[in-house]
Specification:
Elements (H helix, E strand, L loop, with lengths): L4 E4 L3 H12 L4 E5 L12 E2 L1 H10 L3 H7 L8 E5 L6 E6 L18 E2 L2 H11 L12 E4 L3 E6 L4 E5 L4 E4 L1 E4 L6 H6 L3 E17 L12 E5 L4 E8 L4 E7 L12 H12 L6 E16 L10 E3 L5 E2 L6 H22 L5 H36 L6 H4 L1 H7 L1 H13 L10 H18 L6 H5 L13 H6 L19 E3 L5 E3 L3 H8 L7 E6 L7 H13 L7 E7 L16 H4 L2 E3 L2 E7 L4 H5 L4 E5 L5 E6 L12 H7 L7
Parallel strand pairs: 1-2, 1-11, 2-7, 4-13, 11-17, 21-22, 22-24
Antiparallel strand pairs: 3-6, 4-5, 8-9, 9-10, 12-15, 12-16, 13-14, 14-15, 16-18, 19-20, 21-25, 23-24, 25-26
């Protein structure tokens, strides 16, 4: 079967997109210039929204949770002289927050797992667990896109092995230094080159750090090295050490195996013979977003993941934003490839208008988080952000003299080694005061992870005031148009409890529907009305649904006599869903036994969910639902019934 979509890049966003498209029946080819998946850990934090996608859409949550270290090993951040040395300060992060609102709750918490362990699971997901008649993705390693030519009919690719490909769409998921983005002439907007780091992938004898208190991040300050250590798996001895350097007077050649081993050992506080350096890679930190995400001429080349944005790592938004890019793009590509509609270009351009603002917000937050890290460094007497700004001066001074200048700057950190030094005690007090006042780096960001909203995805345009309210923390208590549908625990007649979030994916994965559908969730008529009246209202309302697409209608019954105690979300089987079919509409009854629906949406209310789980419309349950009355953009055109002139 000939591919309809080509994805350049087998990173997290590229493989997530490929796995999603495979489940939607879209023939897809992935080309990756490397000959195999990387073993060097990069991103390592999967937030709640990405876990929802990996669970509901790909069924990967159990595998990923099994691979992740236990939470007690990684929910702290530590400031120290070395991992085995003096602990200067520690921040513990609660992974569950009682202050979460209905819209910022999730059935899944974040996990700590390196990208090198996530990618093999995503690769398997492009091949296995697919619905019947859905072709697996064609994943080709050791092949790159040399060039491409975009026309109104599709994209012609020339590959590095001499072959050619003709596809409908090309997705550039080829990383922060995207060649496809470069060929399109798309510029990045923001702050480039914030800092440069040498990333050292380490294997450490576990017994060497048996006395160390576990954490995810260790910010290390001593006379030999200033570094950040990421404990990917303490029990297995897998670490990454990030050491700042300046490309103006340093190069990768300056960090040979012996130098890297000594730096890592100094950061860990162990003997160099206890450390194996598995790989060393330079990396430059940026805070930038591509000025456009969809090609100008024909709209058939799209940017995704790091090709579209590159953030500071503080907050862990890089990989997660890319995964969520793929989630937004997948159903739109599947829709335009299955529908003959003049609105296809507009639907795909909504990918940019919806996701780019999210990426900009995440860039701003990541930059603020990076500034938090620098503020903690300054409290201890180190201006880590000044290395790049002073790099040109140090380059003029010369290599040996520059190294001596850096060593001199670090020498004063010796005052932190033991309590009792007047300057050291003062700086530790400054750090602890800063952290106590909220100046530390948070781990969980519920508003940015779960409460972002797409104004373009609404069937009715928002007012300027409503759009502005999206960024107001006080306005994320209840569901709103454009936001992800809330995590409401609803109970099926079989007794299974499921989450309303990403219901379209759950129904498709269970075999209830043949594709990712739009879902209309409606409250049952009020209790005070008699049974005949309720039935009449419900029958008339359902009979008045006019939709071009196959639709699932979920009726939520509020039964105050039921005392729901089961809050464990499960994966119901096809039989458990108890769905009935009438024409192109499937009906699914359920019970709001815990009151989640009433709290998040309100009794007597309805909402329409898109295939990606975001809310396209909110209204009253007794409203007739005729899509022809909506006029706003490509989503309305996709859903509007075809009118037959008499």
């Amino acid at each position: 079967m000939l591919p309809r979509v080509a994805i350049s890049g087998a990173g997290p966003s590229g493989l997530t997109l490929a796995a999603l498209l495979a489940r939607m029946g879209v023939p897809t080819v992935v080309i990756e210039k490397q000959t195999k998946l990387p073993t060097h850990p990069q991103a390592h934090y999967i937030n709640a929204r990405s876990m929802e996608i990996f669970s509901h859409d790909l069924g990967l949550h159990k595998q990923l949770q099994r691979l992740s270290p236990p939470a007690e090993q990684w929910n702290d951040f530590v400031w120290c002289t070395s991992v085995a040395g003096r602990e200067l300060a520690r921040i513990g992060h609660a992974l569950s927050d009682t202050r979460l609102t209905p819209i910022t709750r999730s059935a899944f918490g974040p996990i700590h797992l390196s990208q090198s362990k996530i990618l093999p699971e995503l690769l398997k997901s492009t091949q296995l667990g697919l619905p019947a008649a859905c072709p697996p993705a064609d994943v080709r390693f050791g092949v790159a896109c040399s060039s491409f030519n975009e026309t109104s009919e599709g994209v012609h690719l020339r590959l590095s092995n001499g072959e050619t490909l003709d596809v409908d769409y090309l997705v550039a998921a080829d990383g922060a230094n995207s060649k496809i983005r470069e060929q399109l002439g798309i510029k990045m907007a923001g702050r480039p080159r914030l800092s440069s780091l040498m990333n050292l992938h380490l294997r450490v004898a576990p017994e060497a750090l048996s006395s160390a208190h576990s954490a995810m991040l260790y910010f290390v300050f001593n006379p030999k090295v200033v570094a950040v250590l990421v404990a990917h798996d303490i029990d297995a001895g897998e670490w990454v050490c990030q050491v700042p350097f300046s490309p103006d007077f340093q190069s990768e050649a300056d960090f040979d195996l012996s130098v890297c081993q000594d730096l890592a050992a100094a950061a860990l506080g162990v003997s160099p013979n206890m450390v194996d350096v598995l790989s060393a890679r330079p990396w430059t930190m940026h805070a930038e977003v591509a000025e456009q995400w969809v090609s100008t001429n024909h709209g058939r080349v799209l940017l995704c993941g790091d090709a579209a944005h590159r953030f500071p790592p503080a907050g862990g938004f890089g990989m997660n934003t890319g995964v969520q890019d793929a989630h937004n793009l997948a159903w739109k590509l599947a829709s335009v490839l299955s529908e003959e509609s003049d609105q296809a270009p507009a639907l795909l351009r909504s990918y940019e208008t919806e996701r780019r603002p999210v990426a900009v917000n995440n860039t701003v937050l990541s930059l603020k988080n990076y500034e938090r890290v620098l503020a903690a460094c300054r409290a201890l007497g180190i201006d880590s952000g000044g290395l790049d700004s002073n790099g040109r001066f140090l380059a003029q001074v010369g290599g040996v003299a520059a190294e001596k200048a850096l060593a001199l700057a670090r020498a004063q950190l010796g005052c932190l080694e033991k309590p009792g030094h007047p300057l050291g005690d003062l700086r530790v007090q400054q750090l602890r005061r800063l952290l106590a006042q909220g100046g530390g780096l948070p781990l969980v960001f519920p508003k940015h992870e779960l409460a972002f909203a797409y104004s373009e995805g609404a069937l009715e345009a928002q007012t300027a005031q409503e759009a502005k309210a999206i960024d107001n923390a006080a306005m994320v208590d209840t569901v709103r148009v454009g936001s992800r549908a809330p995590h409401c625990c609803l109970e099926l007649p079989s007794g299974h409890v499921f989450s309303l979030a990403d219901l379209s994916a759950q129904l498709h994965s269970s075999g209830v529907t043949r594709r990712r559908c739009f879902i209309l969730v409606r409250s049952e008529p009020k209790e005070e009305e008699n049974d005949d009246r309720k039935g009449g209202i419900q029958d008339r309302a359902l009979g008045q649904i006019k939709c071009r697409q196959p639709l699932v209608v979920v009726t939520v019954k509020s039964d105050l006599d039921l005392k729901g105690e089961n809050t464990s979300v499960s994966a119901p089987s096809l039989h458990d869903w108890s769905a009935t079919t009438s024409g192109s509409v499937k009906h699914l009854p359920c019970i709001d036994a815990l009151g989640d629906w009433a709290n998040a949406v309100g009794q007597g209310r309805s909402l329409l969910m898109r295939p990606d789980g975001h809310v396209a419309w909110l209204g009253d349950s007794n409203e007739s639902f005729d899509f022809s009355r909506f006029k706003n953009g490509p989503l309305a055109a996709l859903l509007a019934p075809v009118r037959v002139e008499k």
